[in-house]
Design brief:
- This protein has 55 residues and is mostly helical.
- It is built from three helices and no strands.
- Helix content is 82%, strand content 0%.
- The longest helix is centred in the middle third of the chain and has 19 residues.
Length: 55
């Protein structure tokens, strides 16, 4: 995992549960939007971030 993702995960873990779920929901919406476009890298990036948050 890279340092930027580690920092995001640390901030994510310090938030309350409702905010965490909101971030995950937002990321899933972004993935859905990016899947309908040509932004393969964006899909991979947001997917990796979301997996990290869920873990």
């Amino acid at each position: 995992m890279n340092q930027k993702l580690d920092e995001k995960q640390a901030r994510f873990q310090s938030e309350n549960t409702s905010l965490r779920l909101g971030h995950i929901a937002s990321n899933l919406a972004r993935i859905r939007t990016f899947c309908n476009s040509a932004y393969k890298e964006a899909v991979e990036s947001v997917t990796d971030e979301t997996i990290c948050f869920i873990e």
